[in-house]
Amino acid sequence: MDAAVITACVTLIGFIVVNFIAEDFRRFRNGSTVAAGLAGELGSYAAPQAQLVTIISGMLQVIEEGNRQRLPFRGIDTPKDRIFEANVASLGLLGPDLVLDIAFVYGQINGFRVGFGLVNDKHAQMGNGELAARLNGCLAMLTAVRPRGELLVQKLTLRANMPFSGWLLSHFPWWLRRPARRSY
What we know:
By secondary structure, the chain is mainly α. The mean pLDDT is 85.
């Protein structure tokens, strides 16, 4: 009877451990997918960001020259961050450090969109000084977010490509982890 109880306990413990590992794998896989999607979405903003810096700098130069009437203002629909919006509830799978950077970068992108949208919609009611100040604000947001955004894309790509074994070991208590190799 003792052998049967021990066998049942070992089986139950094994079942519980396997379920925890399976759930960790599911969460890891979902987190990798979210990281890859966000890296792709943010990476796709890099080339247009450089073009926007050039365009806004040119607009500021035209205002400075006193030729504001030459500026072409066209209304645009506010772009959507489809991958970000679809995965807001899953950001916790990426860990607090990545979520902090994601919130900052998307916040800056949204701030730029609101500011530039305001310039496009209300430029007729603005004097040259206000228009230049708002465009400078948009330019500052674009240039300030670029380094952090590029770093975030790299971090998200690393997280998306991380093997499950590395992720799993990083979540073990420190006393269960394998000691790091030292190079002398």
